[in-house]
Amino acid sequence: MKLLLTALTLLFSGLSVLAQDSRLPVYEVARVDQPIQIDGRLDEKAWKEAMPVGEFVNNRDGTPSNIKTEARILYSDKFIFFAFRAVDSNIWSTFKRRDEHLWLEEVVEVFLQASAQPPNYIELEVNPLGTMLDIYLLDTRKPIPYESWNSKDLKWAVKVDGSVDGRDGDREWTCEIALPFVDVVTAPNNPPKPGDRWRMNLFRVERKPAVAEVAWSPTLQDDFHVLPRLGELVFSDRVVPKQ
């Protein structure tokens, strides 16, 4: 009987964790009253006023991660802004050319989908060297060839507290991205109106000293391109001051 009770406890505990992992997160993005300066520093008042998206967890199973990652989002008339803070004692990447396969090294990523019909989405990746990979996908894993689509007015920058050499002794790296709404061609309103709802996911890949893949909305698979697992982005009428 005791063994049976223990087994049932473990079963219900596992089901509870699975149910919790399967819930999709929602983030309400505030509006900024002036454009953000994209320098990678995250020192503007607007970023302090913006709410963090919440914890990043292990992508494969949704369990807590000891890789500390923070992200915040804002928008204006022309851009949606993303900020990442990646705590990292061992920062590493080597790719320096736009549209290389950045996911093979250390990187932060944004998946953004304004409408499920058609199921187009945009993927953005930035590594600690400040290299960008921007992809427009027509459907799951069906990109327009990488180097044939580049966002003309996309802006990004990183700031590294340490060195990007794969050696210990670093502290963190931060990243800012400004994606122009003109690229989000499937959006029902451009710019978005308060109350509009898009789909989104955020990821971080670590390679050294150990491999880790963390997510805002875990896909629960060994794959980031799981569109049903995109969380929800809700545009708010709340305004935060830039300074």
Task: Give a description of the structure.
With 243 residues, the chain is mostly beta strands. The chain has one domain: Sandwich (Immunoglobulin-like), CATH 2.60.40.1190. The protein is built from two helices and twelve strands. It has helices spanning 2-22, 45-49, and strands spanning 26-32, 57-58, 69-75, 79-87, 107-113, 121-126, 132-137, 155-161, 172-180, 197-206, 212-215, 231-240. Strands 1, 2, 3, 4, 5, 6, 7, 8, 9, 10, 11 and 12 form a twelve-stranded mixed sheet that branches. It is globular, with a radius of gyration of 19 Å. 36% of the residues are buried. Mean pLDDT is 92; it is low at 1-20.
Uncertain segments are: 1-20
**Strand portion:** 25-35%
Structural class: mainly beta
Approximate shape: globular
Distance between the termini: 64 Å
CATH hierarchy: architecture: Sandwich
- Under CATH, the topology is which? Immunoglobulin-like
* Count of separate DSSP helical elements: 2
The counted number of beta strands is 12
| CATH class term | Mainly Beta
Element-by-element helix/strand order: HEHEEEEEEEEEEE
Radius of gyration: 19 Å
Provide the domain count.
1
Helical residue percent band: 10-25%
List keywords for this structure.
12-stranded mixed sheet; disordered N terminus; globular; 243 residues; mainly beta; 2 helices
